[in-house]
Amino acid sequence: MPDGYAALLNEEFERRWLSGDRILDAVCRHALAPGGKLMRPVLLLDSAVAVGGRVASVLPAAVGTECGHVASLVHDDIIDGDETRRGRPAVHSAYGMDQAIVAGDALIFFLFQCLADCRRTGVPEDRIVAALDVVARAGYDLCRGQSLESELRGDVSCSVDTYLTMIRLKTAALFRASCESGAILGQGTREWIGALARYGDHLGTAFQIHDDLLAYTSDAATTGKAAASDVRNRRLTLPVILAYQSADAADRARIEDIMAGAVAVEDAYTTMGEIIERTQAVPASRAMAWRNAEAAHDDLAVLPPSPSRTRLARLATLAVDRDR
Amino acid sequence: MPDGYAALLNEEFERRWLSGDRILDAVCRHALAPGGKLMRPVLLLDSAVAVGGRVASVLPAAVGTECGHVASLVHDDIIDGDETRRGRPAVHSAYGMDQAIVAGDALIFFLFQCLADCRRTGVPEDRIVAALDVVARAGYDLCRGQSLESELRGDVSCSVDTYLTMIRLKTAALFRASCESGAILGQGTREWIGALARYGDHLGTAFQIHDDLLAYTSDAATTGKAAASDVRNRRLTLPVILAYQSADAADRARIEDIMAGAVAVEDAYTTMGEIIERTQAVPASRAMAWRNAEAAHDDLAVLPPSPSRTRLARLATLAVDRDR
User: Fold this and answer.
1) Please, are residues B45 and B57 in contact by the beta-carbon 8 Å criterion?
2) Which is deepest, A156, A162, A167, A294, by most CB within 10 Å?
3) Residues of A numbered 69-128 whose beta carbons fall under 8 angstroms of chain B's beta carbons: which are they?
4) CA distance A145 to B24
5) Where are the transmembrane segments (chains A, B) (predicted)?
6) Under an 8 A CB cutoff, do A23 and B147 touch?
7) Which candidate from B97, B109, B129 shows the least CB-CB separation from A125?
8) Using 50, 70 and 90 to split pLDDT, how confident is the model at B224?
């Protein structure tokens, strides 16, 4: 990300959150504290600029998209019982579940307040309403994805297609909305808006598949979350689904026991890692992540060349080539 | 409420929610099932019509405001551990906490999707963005109110002013936003929009004070929620604050014990009821509710006479004269 973006985003966050002295403000500040990759705001900014828009015009929306993302993390951590996030106590661990539920809601409302604020930075109102539609639908999709993930918990017979539907809702929807709303607010043409929407969808899919892999290719200190969380929560991830599909009968039975929650977490994590290794599920997952990253790359072809387009292309590579 | 409104609102809800076959859709349908008073959508519709707007134009926003309200109820019931709502199992009791958290989020996003849909019903985009700003800020205020309520839990020395701040955020903000956004989307003048905003604020304040009273003047079967919930959750309500202020030393000590959670719930509820009776806290609270209802009534004076204005005036009376 260009240094300028980070500084601008941090300033905008500071400006908006410094004043409040109530617990809710402190809780939101804790949730939003630096440490995140700021992927979504950067996508929004570069999508806007790539179609000819101005950074200053869409900055409130960029801050908003991060708030929407962080809201989902805060609520996810309650659901998954994860006690740390980005190497710090999760919001519900630091402030209790009540405040964490309310802070997540507040961050969602704040996302939409930010969108309305684009009036003051010179975005025409028809573009704001079009972005509102895109962002609100993406948020609902995100919830459908989270609900579907809970529904599928432990269901090892889940198909790759169902998994892909789930992560496109849970993760790619907000990536897509960040790019699409950035292009809308940046006053791009219909063709460019469509291309950036598809780019966001492919990028988000690649990103989530790679994220699922990190539990088996990286350590907790690097990813900043408990690597065993996926196993403990019986969460379906691509390596597990692929391993189950190509495992022998004995390993299948082991995966079934683990995903039924019948194995102690540490043992489960170790055993799952071994089966995933034996079945070559990591390279198979990685190949699928790369295919989506390449598709994201190709989606950018219709855009005029620019530093923003170059950065977006680089992000597609980075999404599948990172260790946290 | 005119019969026409109820039918139109129900049709709009049906149209929007019938299609989905995933768990999340079922959870949202459970949360939104009939039984509510539909106060907020009716306020939005009548505010729009009172300033010259059309019902059909603002109907999506009216459905949206109910979704925002229901979202807060779903999350409130988790926070308060209330197992029933409107005489049926609370969402988290029926579907588990995970789905209830996600469904609340989904309903918030749906609220904003509804607002964007007013494009299709002919509301000009500048009005939609203005309403977006009002609704998003109100949602954030609602969260501030919920957070403040948690912060103040059991703090019997809370002043009436702090209590009023809390309920204006927690309850009146969304009443206000329903009226104000209705008037904005109905293309009212600045003066009428301001008057309806103030009306909503006074009405919501009156409504919440009366709601607090119901625990001591009505029974659980009528209100549809556990009347002892307020005591069990050590929630500050106006009768408790007023009772504490005018109680003798012995009763003060009893209230302190109860609000510290040191008394079994059934005993606590009975004792609190007796102290509230002795200190005349019910009529004192009722007087404050009525003053706000009268102020709401007066706020309507600048509007041209119409059936909608008459109904809004009647709602101000109804808010403080109901047993559920």
Assistant:
1) no
2) A167
3) 71-72, 75, 78-79, 96-99, 101-106, 108-110, 112-113, 115-117, 119, 125-126, 128
4) 9
5) none
6) yes
7) B129
8) very low
Q: Is the dihedral of CA B180, A104, B9, B41 positive or negative?
A: negative
> Per the structure block, which two tokens stand in for A213?
């892999």
Distances (CA, A) of B78 to A99, A136, A309, B19, B228: 12, 24, 45, 27, 16
Third-level CATH fold of B3-319: Farnesyl Diphosphate Synthase (1.10.600)
- A136/B109 touch (CB, cutoff 8 Å), yes or no: yes
Ranges A110-114, B139-143, B212-216, B311-315: which has the least confidence: B212-216
Structure tokens at A185: 């607010």
Query: Are the CB atoms for B275 and B243 separated by under 8 Å?
Result: yes
Closest CA to A205 of A279, A316, A101, A282: A316
| Alpha helices (runs of H) in B153-189, residue ranges in sequence order | 160-167, 173-185
Strand partners of residue B100: none
Q: Cβ separation of A23 and B151 shorter than 8 Å?
A: yes
Q: What is the count of residue pairs from A and B with beta carbons less than 8 Å apart?
A: 163
Residues paired with A84 in a beta bridge: A89
Q: Which residues pair with B84 in a beta bridge?
A: B89
Helices (H), A20-172: 23-32, 39-50, 55-80, 91-95, 97-117, 125-152, 160-167
Pick the closest to residue B97 from B117, B113, B82 (CA basis): B82
Cα gap B41→A182, rounded to integer Å = 32
How far does A262 lie from chain B, in Å, by closest CA? 21
- Write the pLDDT tens digit of every residue in B30-60: 998 876 789 999 999 999 999 999 999 999 9
Of A118, A114, A15, the closest CA to residue A57 belongs to A118
Residue B125 C-alpha, separation from nearest chain A C-alpha, in angstroms: 6
Cβ under 8 Å to B: A residues 16-75? 22-24, 27, 71-72, 75
Phi and psi (nearest 5°) for A88?
A: -125, 165
Sequential DSSP letters for A71-90: HHHHHHHHHHT--EETTEE-
Say how far apart CA A137 and CA B277 lie, in whole Å. Answer: 50
Task: Give the three-state DSSP class for A226.
Answer: coil
Contacts of A233 in chain B (CB under 8 A): none
> Nearest residue of A to residue B111 by CA position?
A136
| Residues linked to residue A89 through DSSP beta bridges, in sequence order | A84
Residues 148-177 of B with CB under 8 A from A: 148, 150-151
For the segment B297-310, the average pLDDT, to the nearest whole number, is 98
Kindly determine whether residue B115 and residue A132, on different chains, have CB atoms separated by under 8 Å: yes
**pLDDT band at residue B221 using 50, 70 and 90 as cut-offs:** very low
Total residue length of chain B: 324
Enter the DSSP assignment of B305. P
Confidence of residue A219 (pLDDT cuts 50, 70, 90): low
List, for residues B74-89, the tens digit of each pLDDT value. 999 999 898 988 889 9
Answer whether A199 touches B (CB < 8 Å).
no
C-beta separation of A258 from A266 below 8 A: no
Q: Which residue has the tokens 């768990």?
A: B23
CATH superfamily of A3-318: Farnesyl Diphosphate Synthase (1.10.600.10)
A-chain residues within 8 Å CB-CB of B234? Answer: none
Phi then psi for B216, rounded to 5 degrees?
A: -110, -5
Angle between helices B55-80 and B125-152 (to 10 degrees): 20
List CB contacts (< 8 A) between A76 and chain B: none
